[in-house]
Sequence to fold (368 residues):
Amino acid sequence: MPGGSPKQPEPTSDGWSPRTEASLWLGLGLLGVGVVWFTVRAIEIDRSLDAASRQLASAGPPDAPPAPAPDAGAEPHLALAWTVGAPGEPAEPLASVRRAAEELLARRLPHGLRRGAVIRAVAEAATAPKEPRILALDVRAAGQPEARFYRFDGNATGRLVDEEGREPMPNPWQAPLATLRRTSPFNPKRMHPILHRVRPHEGTDYGAPSGTPVYAALEGSVSWVGPHGGHGKWVAIQHDNGVETGYAHLSRFAAGLKRGDHVATHQLVGYVGSTGRSTGPHLHFSASRNGVYFDAETLLATPLRELPADRRDAFRAEKGELDRELDDIGAPLPAAPRPGRGDEPASPANDSESQPHAAASGARRQRR
Ligand SMILES: [Zn+2]
Fold:
């Protein structure tokens, strides 16, 4: 609008309009409030620190000698390294650390924990009957990137977080075996080694000794128990979410299991075997929806939760300390097996069709 607003206030002698002056006073006022708030916060923080140190100082029975400095009183951490599957078991509490670490990693690593993997662990030295608490893990397996996991308090699930501070969220699906050692992946375009044409591998093969318990990956209704062509002794379970899982090549079924039974998640359904088209004991685990097979491993993949932004600095500080402790751990004793072969499963076994060398030696085995 030309000429401007007639209500524009006149400039004062020092050139500031009354409005500018009002803004200045308002700004000063806010600044004052800010200073007071900051001072009060600082005093509060100071007080809570005071209270914390008093609490530390007064820890322990009244008649006890003066409490040691917090650092001197902390239990030293257990630190150890070992090779998965190497002979020999250490004394307690190291044996418990090894068991707990291997259990954690078997669940946590995308393809399970393999023989020959080298693990370094830092744990809290707890006195019996309390189990040692794993604080940090480092795992190296041939052909796989080094992975580290850390205990970080105050996260959602209390599980170990990865190097980015991500923690696994609960997954209703559970592994069909206590230890997953994948020997052959789902592959819709697998080339048949003898027929030289595409013959899909409709499940995931996990090597395991004959007789290893096989569990329902999720609760559901048993849709098949019995012989089923190349699957050999087969169990299938129909789940409420429309997915059907299959468990093939079993040596035998769980006692009394029959079609129509309701099974709970992780309920025993059978035992690993080599029935049907199979070259050795393993579990062929499959998943389908409306009769179409998809990669059953995707069911077992764990969703990861990102670390909230306001916890990242605290995590980096704790991670730094645990990294130093992991870095200080030497090589495992006894020495790791020869590299290259060490991470191979003890007895690799797949469906006969997935054996790449079957073309040379497997013709006899292939006959049905
Ligand atoms: Zn298979």
